[in-house]
Amino acid sequence: MFRFLARLLHEFSYSLSFPLVSFSIVFSNLPTTPPEQPPTGRRKPNSIKRTPFAMESLTDEATVAAMRADPVTPVETFVFTFPTSRDFTPECRVYYTPTLDSFTTSLTQCILNDPSSHPNDKAAILPQPHLIFNHGRRTNLDATSLVAFTKGFARTQTVLSFLDLGDLEHRTSTFRSLLSFFPTALTLGGRSTGSRSATRAQIWSPARKLIFFTYPLTRGLSERYEELLQLEDNVDVLFVVGDSDPLCHELHLRAIRNRMRARTWWIRVINGDHLFMMKGDTVQERKMCDIAGQIAARWNVDGGRDPNKTELTLDYDMVKKEAVWTEWLEDPEKKVGGAAPVTVKLTISGGNLPGGVESFVRTLPS
């Protein structure tokens, strides 16, 4: 508010050179409770009212039992190498649930291992991924939490993960190369550094969804969120972040989410650190991350995201040794609506001003 007033006064600063100049400012349309306004221009994160729709329940008895149990059809992993440039052929893994029309593993392995096979031929015979995913800076594709998350996701959707130990730019280029060969992947994701490179790869790509299995918002005294603020308002972002993550503190995460133009959701993992090691309890780590992957896969489908319900808590029952979770809930700190436009009338009188009295009216947007 005061910034706008300063700007208005600056516009008429020429009058200060005249003696006996007085100012009077009148405000109108100052509501005590800000009413909801239709969005104008670029929309603010999570501020648009949508037509309510019935999301699939995550906590009914049958769903909980199915998510905790082993999958009816086990998830399979197919390991291969795939050339993404002349100088780089990363190891890749496809996590998928086999169906009756799944590809023939022996034939696929033969073609993929043939150096003369064109990348397009290799891509065509593989299960087409919904998500392309990259690991963290000091981890690889074999990390317990990452494997559990990926397999949980792959119960219903196919994941293509790739190994790239390069810097952000190198990983970003690998993302974009794989996107060109696997256009069915409309979601990018990663763990820690892989999340940052996925964010960069999304810009100027057809992908419109991002899944972050931890995100390094801070490192020491530096903050790293520039990529997040570049995301457009037609992008949906899911953060899977523990409440004990020193690189993505809850206060930092909430502040950045409020500044982002993209719509955001958050799975809060209780006692989860940056590596989701759960204090060394590998059973808890595997179960929690598997459920997180399943919830992320349900979020990734059309109709699986309610823009008004953006936070879900995932915990662990130490007595029953099983994961427990909530439905998607509204953010209790979410700002509802915006302030009504305020009209400011600026009157300049006295001195040697021509006409004696000048009035200017400006309407400040909310």
Outline the structure in words:
The chain is α/β, with parallel strands linked by helices. The protein folds into two domains: 53 residues; 265 residues, Rossmann fold. 27% of the residues lie in helices and 22% in strands. The chain contains ten helices and 15 strands. The chain has a ten-stranded mixed sheet, sandwiched between helices. A three-stranded antiparallel sheet has the order 1-14-15, with helices on one face. Helix 9 links the parallel strand 10 and strand 11. Helix 5 runs parallel beside helix 10 and helix 6 packs across helix 7. It is globular.
Secondary structure layout:
Elements: H1 2-11, E1 22-28, H2 61-68, E2 76-81, E3 91-96, H3 105-112, H4 119-125, E4 131-134, H5 144-153, E5 159-162, H6 168-181, E6 187-190, H7 193-202, E7 209-213, E8 218-219, E9 222-223, H8 226-230, E10 236-242, H9 250-259, E11 263-269, H10 282-299, E12 311-317, E13 322-325, E14 342-349, E15 357-364
Parallel strand pairs: 4-5, 4-6, 6-7, 7-10, 10-11, 11-12
Antiparallel strand pairs: 1-14, 2-3, 3-5, 8-9, 12-13, 14-15
Helix pairs in contact: 5-10, 6-7
